[in-house]
C-alpha cells in the first residue's frame, strides 16, 4: 500500500496531487561540504510531500539519502528503500524509515527501482548517483522507458555534466532531440513542474513494447 498519509484533513487540503505518484530519487550517501546540498534534499522532500509523491531510493540512512527519505516519511508518504545485501551493514544505521527491500546485487537494485518508479530525480551525488542517472537517460533513449528524468542542479553542481551533454550534441554523438531527455532546474519546485510538463521529443532506438517481450526471438543465420 503506497499511501501512508496520516496528517489529517487540514494537511490533506493543502496538498496537491502530482502528475506522477512514485518518484525514484538518486542522491549521495554523503551530505557534501556545504549546507546548500542538505537544504536542497529537504526542499525536494517537502515538495514531494506537498504533491503526495511517494519515494523510491537507494535505502541508505546517511547523507542526502537519509535527509530526503526522512522528510518524505515524516510527511506521511510511502518510502521504499532498495539496497543490495552487501551494503546493508554499511548504509543503514539504526532504524531505517519506511519499507526496505533487500536485493542480491546492484543490477537488481537498479532494475527494481526503475520498474517501480514513474519518474526519476537526481540530487547532487558521486559516481553512483551519476551512473544511475546516466543509465536511466540511456534507457529513455533506447526506448526502455518514457518516464521523465530530472536533474536538480543545486548551485551549479551539475553545470559541467550538462555542458558535457551539450558538447556531445555539438560533436555529433548525441542527437539534439535526445538532449531534451534530461530536464534540469535549480529548485525542486521548478524541476517537478518541468517534469510534469515533459513530452519526449526523441526517436526511441526501439519501441518500448519490444523491450517488454516475455521471451527473446531466435535469429537464424
Low-confidence stretches: 5-13
Radius of gyration: 18 Å
Give the SSE order as H and E letters. HEHEHEHEHEHEHHEHH
Number of separate strands = 7
Summarize the structure.
This protein is an alpha/beta fold and 221 residues long.
Structural commentary:
The protein has 221 residues and is an alpha/beta fold. The protein contains ten helices and seven strands. The chain has helices at 8-14, 35-50, 63-74, 88-91, 106-116, 127-142, 159-170, 176-179, 188-196, 208-211; strands spanning 22-26, 54-57, 79-84, 99-103, 119-122, 149-152, 182-185. Strands 4-3-2-1-5-6-7 form a seven-stranded parallel β-sheet, sandwiched between helices. Strand 5 (119-122), helix 6 (127-142) and strand 6 (149-152) form a beta-alpha-beta unit. Helix 2 (35-50) runs parallel beside helix 3 (63-74). The radius of gyration is 18 Å and the shape is globular. The chain starts with 7 loop residues before the first helix and ends in a 10-residue tail after the last helix. 36% of the residues are buried.
Question: How is the secondary structure organized here?
Answer:
Elements: H1 8-14, E1 22-26, H2 35-50, E2 54-57, H3 63-74, E3 79-84, H4 88-91, E4 99-103, H5 106-116, E5 119-122, H6 127-142, E6 149-152, H7 159-170, H8 176-179, E7 182-185, H9 188-196, H10 208-211
Parallel strand pairs: 1-2, 1-5, 2-3, 3-4, 5-6, 6-7
Helix pairs in contact: 2-3
Amino acid at each position: 500500500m503506497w499511501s501512508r498519509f496520516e496528517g489529517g484533513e487540514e494537511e490533506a487540503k493543502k496538498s496537491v496531487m502530482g502528475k506522477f505518484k512514485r518518484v525514484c530519487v538518486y542522491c549521495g550517501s554523503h551530505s557534501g561540504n556545504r549546507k546548500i546540498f542538505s537544504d536542497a534534499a529537504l526542499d525536494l522532500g517537502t515538495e514531494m510531500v506537498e504533491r503526495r509523491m511517494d519515494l523510491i531510493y537507494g535505502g541508505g540512512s546517511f547523507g542526502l539519502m537519509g535527509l530526503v527519505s526522512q522528510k518524505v516519511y515524516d510527511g506521511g508518504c510511502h518510502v521504499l528503500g532498495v539496497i543490495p545485501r552487501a551494503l546493508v551493514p554499511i548504509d543503514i544505521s539504526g532504524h531505517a524509515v519506511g519499507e526496505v527491500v533487500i536485493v542480491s546485487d546492484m543490477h537488481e537494485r537498479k532494475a527494481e527501482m526503475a520498474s517501480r518508479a514513474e519518474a526519476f530525480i537526481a540530487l547532487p551525488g558521486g559516481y553512483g548517483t551519476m551512473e544511475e542517472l546516466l543509465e536511466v537517460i540511456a534507457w529513455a533513449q533506447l526506448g526502455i522507458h518514457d518516464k521523465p528524468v530530472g536533474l536538480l542542479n543545486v548551485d551549479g553542481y551539475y553545470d559541467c555534466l550538462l555542458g558535457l551533454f551539450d558538447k556531445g550534441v555539438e560533436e555529433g554523438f548525441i542527437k539534439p532531440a535526445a538532449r531534451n531527455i534530461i530536464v534540469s532546474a535549480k529548485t525542486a519546485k521548478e524541476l517537478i513542474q518541468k517534469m510534469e510538463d515533459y513530452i519526449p521529443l526523441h526517436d526511441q532506438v526501439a519501441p518500448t513494447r519490444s523491450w517488454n517481450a516475455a521471451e527473446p526471438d531466435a535469429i537464424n543465420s
